[in-house]
Amino acid sequence: MKYGSPSDKADWWETLDARHRANDNEMVEADLVWNTTKLARVGVRFKGNSSYNHPGRKKPFRIDFDKFVKDQKIGDISSLSLGNNWGDPSFVREELLL
User: Fold this and answer.
1) Angle at Cα 15 formed by Cα 44 and Cα 40, nearest 5°?
2) 40-62 burial string, b = 16+ CB within 10 Å, else e?
3) Domain count of the chain?
4) pLDDT per residue over 61-90, tens digit each?
5) Is residue 92 part of a domain?
6) Best exposed site among 2, 18, 32, 63 by fewest CB in 10 Å?
């Protein structure tokens, strides 16, 4: 999976970071490509507090496929919550729910 730059801005990372630090949970618009599926205008934001504040650039994301385009989904999935597994050296504590 790869992310397009939200709103075609080169500073998308800084925009997400500034909003998160200001406790602004408003999502930034982005295009998403997942294998051969392309979704335009999904909502993206950083999520978490302790997991967000760990050192480094591996941050947790929240992606809402239908934030800007009503009923946009991949299969039956309308959103993803991507953890960064901070504090989990085994990478197995995160549950997968479909």
Assistant:
1) 35
2) ebbbbbbbbeebeeeeeeebbbb
3) 1
4) 889 999 999 999 999 999 998 877 766 666
5) no
6) 2
- Residue numbers of the domain that contains 50: 2-82
Q: Answer yes or no: is 96 within a domain.
A: no
CA 6/CA 12 separation, integer angstroms: 6
97 inside domain:
no
Query: pLDDT at position 21, please?
Result: 80
pTM of the model: 0.73
Predicted confidence (pLDDT) per residue in 18-62, tens digit: 888 888 888 888 888 888 889 999 999 888 766 666 766 777 888
Q: Residue 77: left if φ>0, alpha if ψ -120 to 50, beta else—which one?
A: beta
In a domain, 51, yes or no: yes
